[in-house]
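As a warm-up, study this chain.
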Amino acid sequence: MTRRFTLIYGLRYEPFLPWHEQQGRMGSFFPADYAAGIHSTLYPLAPAGLLFAGDPGFNPNGVPNIYSHFMPRLGFAWDIFGTGRTSLRGGERREGDGGVPGRQAETRTRSDSAGPVACRPSPCRCAGPSLSALAGRGQG
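Now compare it with the structure written out below.
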């Protein structure tokens, strides 16, 4: 832009390619199939809604590939006085796993006996013991 102001921009591309279990040892629970009483064709004694790799309609990777994860970046640097000794820098980026199946909610377990803490993506609404430790305001 100018000798004293620099604008930096970029775009990160991060496709989601799930791992593939070579032996096909995968299963998932589908609530709609449970409500419809649908059973696995491979393991008919499994509970309704529990399907496995090889069942009709079951994705062999568990979840589909996602190729639409583009995350923009923007940054700047400003030489305030033009001396090269004092600068103001900043930046912003967009990223995350918001579009990845199975990442809508996470559970974190603490190492002490306080028990699990459930947390949903931002804005984070947490429930459980010692929430100040999760928010960075305390030490558990």
